[in-house]
Every structure is written in C-alpha cells, then in structure tokens.
Amino acid sequence: MEDIVQIKYALDTFYFLVCAVLVMWMACGFAMLEAGLVRTKSTTEILAKNISLFAIASVMYLLVGYYIMYSSDGGIFPSLGMLIGSENTLADVTAGGDDAPYYSARADFFFQIVFAGACMSIVSGAVAERMKLWAFLGFAVIMTGFIYPIQGAWSWGGGWLSELGYSDYAGSGIVHMAGAVAALAGVLLLGPRQGKYGANGQINAIPGSNLPLSTLGIFILWMGWFGFNGGSELKISDVASANNVAQVMVNTNLAAAGGLLAAMATARILFGKTDLTMVLNGALAGLVSITADPLSPSALSAVLIGGVGGIIVVLSVLGLDRLKIDDPAGAISAHGSAGIWGVLAVPLTNAEAAFSSQLIGVLAIFAWVFIASLVVWGIIKLIIGIRVSPEEEYLGVDSVECGLEAYPEFTLKK
C-alpha cells in the first residue's frame, strides 16, 4: 500500500511539473506574438521585456509572492513573509491520511511561478513601442511580488473571495483579467503611440512587422494552455481526476477553435476582410474565456463560450480604439474583456457557482489591480518617467533602450 501511495505521489508530481513546463513555454508564445505585432524598430526591446519579466517573476515569487498568496488564513489581508518553506513532504505521504500531500510542495511552487509570469506577460504587449524598458521592469517587480499575489490570496489562497464562493478554475480573472487591468492602468498614463490617432478622430493602423511570428506565438500559447488548464486539475493519479483532465483539455482546445472562428466571421462581416490579427486574438480570447471553468461545460458549450469570447475581442479592440486607448497587441481586449466574460459565464454551466459571487470577484480584482497599478505606474513616472521621448520613439526603442536591432539588414545605411 505504501508503494502505491508513493507511486501516485510521484505521478501527480511529475504531471504537475510537466504542466508547469508547458505554461513556462507560453512565455515564448507571448514573446513571439508580441514581437510580430510591433514594428521592426521595437522588436528587440519587446523580446528583452518578455524574457526579463519571467526572471523577475521567478525571483519575486520566491522572495515574497508565494508566501503572500498561499499563507493566508482567509480574510482580506494576506499574511506577509518571505521565501518558501524547506519542508520534506515524504514522511507525511508515507504516513497517509486525508491531510497527506499528494504532490511535492516544490512542484506547486514552480507551477505558481509560471502563472505569475504569464500574468505579467500580458502587460508587455499593451505598453509596447513607447515605454521605457526599466520602467516596465520596475513595475514587474511590484506586480509579480505583491499586486498579483495579494488578489490571488483572496481566491486560490483561501481568502475572502474563496469563502464567498468565487469560482475561477485556472484564472480567467485571477491571472488574465488582472494582467489586462494592470496594462490598462499603464496605458492610460502612457498615452498612445505617435501617429496612432489623428486630430479629427481618425484611427491609423500601425501594422505589425512579422505576422508569421505572431501566428507561431498563438500556436505556442494554444499548446501551452493545455498545461495552464490541465495542470489546474492538480491531480491525475485516479480515474476521476484523469477523466477531468481529459475533459479540461478537450474543452480548452474547442474553446480556442470557437473563439478563432467567431472572430474570423465577425471580422469578415465588419471589415469585409479576414483580418489575421483578429483571428489570432480570437483564438486567444477563446482560451481566456474557458479558463475560468474548462471542466463543467460540455464540449459544445465550450465552443460557444469560446465563440462569444471571439466576438467580444473584436468588438473590444474596436471600442478601445475609439476611446483612443492604444494597445498594439490587443492584450487588454483578449485577456481583459474576454477574461471578464469567462468569469461571468461560469454559472451558465456550473450549478455550484453564483453570478453574484462571480461579479463581486470581477469587481474586487479589477478595483485592486487597477488602483494599485495606477499608483505604482504613477510613482515610477515621477521618479524615472515611463515613456521615451518623441525623438526616441521615432528612432525606435530597440536602438534607444537596447542598442541592438532585431532586423539590422533591413535598416538603410547612410
């Protein structure tokens, strides 16, 4: 019997770690997606942001984030502390009992790190092409170490939202909407890119530099999402859990497909063209929409939930442009607007969730992340500034911030 317990422990730990690696691979997906949606003169800097933010998230989550998020006894204010424990769980496992852990604590820590990194990756695309690199990295320290973990403690950490009945299986609100709201606060202080909006209200398209790269990024994100949602089942070593993982992965895939097709059709109806950028964000919106509950819906319901997300993302991108909120990657729409829909859609297929609890969760996370982010962005703006000069923006943040060009052979030499 003891051997069976240890085998199950090893299997669940291994599954957890593999899923964490898949989610870490999503960092590459975000980097490729954003690198393709910005201009050539901004590519190096966006890549520097994406790989650096993951390193920052890893260290900050070690120092304070994990403790804040998972050391709370409930309530609004989480516990404060540093570092992760050094406990060895093997003795508890072999002893058995209902309270015995069934996977390594270190596996849980690694899995949660990559979620924090994914949340911060959302911010990168929205503030692209005009934000100072070190202003962004400074915000990443606070976002991954404090802002994200505090609201995460309210739900996944057993805090007041969890006690209220807020349900968010893999983080449509906790991860995706939170990242989008932090991005929105930054974009409002940052302002749009030069030339994006005309004096008479016209909206000028600023095409990305490499749509094949962006398409690769979506394929990588789509693949990584199986770890994002599948790993959130937290277990695979029994029949019920294995069946749940299979259902989650099927629904995750179908929601992405539904979002892509709905966005494609919506773009065709509105523009008369099949806009690839909308198609890509449609898949992303479908994935975000199903993340709040990929287990309860039927396969057909997953397609419909993702499809609504795909429609929402197209309308949201257009709406933000009319408000002169410039988001080069469409991140606020794909993760924020679709994330809100995903959280509010949970009661449609999950009888244990209540619309009132879901709405309170959305409002609480939005308010906390927006206000905290606005304050942090504001402080950084006062200290070092958050936007490059007009001349530097014209030259490109690659040469100004990094001293390198991603595509040097395309540059005209004088």
TrEMBL record:
The keyword Ion transport does not apply. This is Ammonium transporter. The chain crosses the membrane at residues 14-38, 50-69, 109-127, 134-157, 169-190, 211-228, 248-271, 276-292, 298-318, 330-348, 360-380. Pfam families: Ammonium_transp (PF00909). Its main location: membrane. It is a multi-pass membrane protein. One of its GO terms (cellular component) is plasma membrane. Belongs to the ammonia transporter channel (TC 1.A.11.2) family. Gene3D superfamilies: Ammonium transporter AmtB like domains. Keywords: Ammonia transport, Membrane, Transmembrane, Transmembrane helix, Transport. GO terms for molecular function: ammonium channel activity. Residues 16-407 form the Ammonium transporter AmtB-like domain. It comes from Halopseudomonas formosensis. GO terms for biological process: ammonium homeostasis. It is found in: Cell membrane; Membrane.
